[in-house]
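It would be a great kindness if you could assist me with a short task in structural biology. The full record is reproduced below for your convenience:
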Amino acid sequence: MRTGILGGTFNPVHMGHVLLADAAARELRLDRTLLIPASIPPHKQAPELAADRHRLAMCKLAVGQIRGGQVSDLELRRGGKSYTCRTLEMLKEQYPADTLYLICGGDMFLTLQDWKRPETIFQLAVICAAARQGIAHAQMQAQQTRLEAMGARIQLLEVSLPPWSSTDIRQRIGAGQPVNGMLPEPVAEYILTNRLYQK
């Protein structure tokens, strides 16, 4: 089995996440693609982090648009900082015969060498990355060369990702501006119903 993993705060999950995960699933012929919302993100501050139950619910509403998509609450159950190396170790125990594919956007890909125990990440998973707007293809290729020298297996994905981020979406919602097309429709409805990210 080929299992893809896309982790993140998903605060909220948006169409960029969906497009990235679905492109990876199709390009890499994944049997399942796991969305894994983080408990506490180790790489960034998250002052407006919605409650775990809301982020998990939004992922469940979005995952139907991803080929073989499933949601895992592994990091939420574990609690504490959500280190990818530990998550991969737990997934390898859960799916010992699977090949794991770690899916990430270009911004995360360019910092992988600075993550906790990167050698464990490289050992346990193939790294699959797609550039976000503003990241040059040459940067991605240079990082691929650098990480492969450290023992990583890299697959660069051919997918065009939208320019917005979860931060952009939260700001727009807080300002009462439209977010049409930026979120899966059920996620947009959930945010409205539960009054998330509103000032």
